[in-house]
Amino acid sequence: MIMFKIFINEFKNNNFLSKTQFNNHQIIYNNYKNNLNLFLIEKKIFLKNKLELIDIISDLPENEKNQFSYILGGYLNHEYFFKNISFNKNFCFGEIKNKILKTFNSYQNFEFNFIKCLQNFIGWGWVVINNKKLCILKTYENNNPMYPISLGGFNSVPLLCIDLHEHSYIIDYTNNKNLYISNFLKNINWYEVENRYQNYLLNI
């Protein structure tokens, strides 16, 4: 079994997150990583690919399913989030841009719907692909869209992730979640999102 690590995004001065906010959030992410590795060691689970871990949730005893799915989701969700933020402004492009325009008619409509859907939610916000359809979804606690519906997921492929828990923005934005989401949309690593979408296209 390999020990899972956290994704380290090199911090640069930016208009989205302060270094204090960023570092505090990374600590939470790192704690989920540690808890995941401890669980795997204690249960002697030997898998190499982190995504394979979703498949074994159903094989766990009932009293461990929720605990493990919460820890695993906390790790996976934070990894998606930190990988899809950027400290250098870049623009939506490629096949994901075409899909967004086809689904929402304009990029401005996509941003409007993203903010409206997520502004009052506590949990995780997602753009996912399911049956070739692009959707904005919400998951509670640490549920991941790849999880089956029975575990609070959607059997969907995540393309974009935003953390909407208070710890992700409270230092920089106090109670102004709308500004946090708006600034997030200006700091998306569209290269990462396009890569996720291209991987999906290769496997359908």
Structure explained in plain terms:
InterPro entries: Mn/Fe_SOD_C, Mn/Fe_SOD_N_sf, SOD_C_sf. Residues 94-196 form the Manganese/iron superoxide dismutase C-terminal domain. Helix 1 packs antiparallel against helix 3 (62-83) and helix 4 (94-104) crosses helix 8 (190-202). The protein contains eight helices and three strands, in the order H-H-H-H-H-E-E-E-H-H-H. It has one domain (17-204): minor pseudopilin epsh fold. Strand 1 (124-130) and strand 2 (133-139) form a beta hairpin. It is mainly alpha-helical and 204 residues long.
In short:
With 204 residues, this protein is mostly helical.
List the helices and strands and how they pair.
Layout: H1 19-42, H2 52-56, H3 62-83, H4 94-104, H5 107-118, E1 124-130, E2 133-139, E3 157-163, H6 170-173, H7 177-185, H8 190-202
Antiparallel strand pairs: 1-2, 1-3
The coarse silhouette is globular
Helices, by number, come to 8
pLDDT < 50 stretches: none
Number of separate strands:
3
Sketch the topology as an H/E string, one letter per element.
HHHHHEEEHHH
What is the number of independent domains?
1
Determine Rg (CA atoms, Å): 17 Å
CATH topology: minor pseudopilin epsh fold
- What kind of sheet is the major sheet? 3 strands, antiparallel
Average pLDDT works out at: 94
The CATH homologous superfamily name equals Iron/manganese superoxide dismutase, C-terminal domain
| Percent in strands | 5-15%
Helix content: 40-55%
> Structural class from helices and strands?
mainly alpha
**Span between N and C termini?**
29 Å
Question: CATH first level: which class?
Answer: Alpha Beta
Looking at the overall shape, the CATH architecture is 3-Layer(bab) Sandwich
Tell me the strand order in the biggest sheet.
Answer: 2-1-3
InterPro entries: Mn/Fe_SOD_C (IPR019832), Mn/Fe_SOD_N_sf (IPR036324), SOD_C_sf (IPR036314)
GO molecular function: metal ion binding; superoxide dismutase activity
Domain Manganese/iron superoxide dismutase C-terminal: 94-196
Pfam families: Sod_Fe_C
